[in-house]
Amino acid sequence: MTQSNSRDRELRERAAAVIPGGMYGHQSVGLLPDDYPQFFERGEGAHIWDADGNRYLDFMCAYGPNLFGYAHPEIDAAFVRQLGQGDTLTGPTGLMVELAETLVRMVSHADWAIFCKNGTDATTMALTTARAHTKRRIVVRAKGAYHGALPWCTPRPAGVIDSDRAHQIFCDYNDVASLEAAVAEAGDDLAAIFAAPFRHDAFIDQAEPDAAYARKARELCDRTGALLVVDEVRAGFRLSRDCSWSRLGVSPDLSTWGKCLANGHPLSVMLGNEKARRAAASVYVTGSFWFQAATMAAALETLRLVRETDYLERITALGDRLRAGLDARARAAGFGFRQTGPATMPLFLFDDDPDLRKGFCFSSEMLSRGVYVHPWHNMFLCAAMTEADIDQTLDAAEAAFAVLKRQAPALGPVEKLAFLSGAH
């Protein structure tokens, strides 16, 4: 991919002239191994092809939107049919009402829906709605938790001023005492507690939510009148066919959804309960493309598949098969290899690897064998994957562990990630 005559290299050089930094956001490969492709040509099922025609089994699933497979025939057919009738119109089609009704039926805490395009749209609407409902300012959220890319929540604060980040108090995820202390600090100015479905911060081990932590968040909101927000943008419909915290017996007041809601077609949503309806109606939120009909048609077909197929059971079984196989192969090769997070959304990290030199080597070796994994971000399984795909991944991993075992003593530091070891 990085050869001077490659299509990817040519596109990178052209991009550098017309796109600041050459690429931006989470789709940039600036913090990935140097051999990772930046540009892709197409996707089908569980696979993607880069600009040079190389094919990969894709465990990033477009950073989450691909739930049922790239270019899914039924979902895309619904999109194309509606596109032929009308998409961006002066007002929405009836599909918007049908989609809202469908989500209200599927998600147990939801009484209404407001649609948008990106996860950040939805989380920011939730923040605004909570403040409108409570007439308060402070939001409590976990340290390191990702809730989007606007100034109030972006993890890279260049250009952000203190007032953009004002009225936020941070706690430790899954730490009841820390949560209680943050709420006490907020006092009578607490508008909302934001929660991730599980701890999915980059660069560190993932953690499932503790039931006591989730129940305490609900209790504190009930006691103070604040709203509980569960941010499902990344995990929605990958852990449950309902809000993920329903598995813990906890219902939020608001939840935010995106990524796989329409299997890659751009759509996000804020769902809420009756308590928050008036506040949601009072805030001004809109976008020129938020009401597109073709995307809503794709979402309705996606949700039909969520309801009527065994996709969740299948990707969970595949994730368990992958986890057990990788554990066995890592142990055989003599590596401490941590797999954390839900089986459907795994993260891989090596023991004794503070600057990810082992992780980068392993990921590059996997890539060279046609398997796209990520060295520091959680990954995703999709329903288009098969047991044969998992077996291919395990074979690639066995070979990658063998290469890493030979090369580990000579691996140099990963300079682009020097900040992980405190050098930046």
TrEMBL record:
Cited InterPro entries: Aminotrans_3, Aminotrans_3_PPA_site, PyrdxlP-dep_Trfase, PyrdxlP-dep_Trfase_major, PyrdxlP-dep_Trfase_small
GO MF term (any one): pyridoxal phosphate binding
A Pfam family of this chain: Aminotran_3
Keyword match Ribosomal protein: no
Record's keyword terms, sorted: Pyridoxal phosphate
Keyword Nuclease listed: no
Domain of life of the native organism: Bacteria
Cofactor section: pyridoxal 5'-phosphate
Protein name: Glutamate-1-semialdehyde 2,1-aminomutase
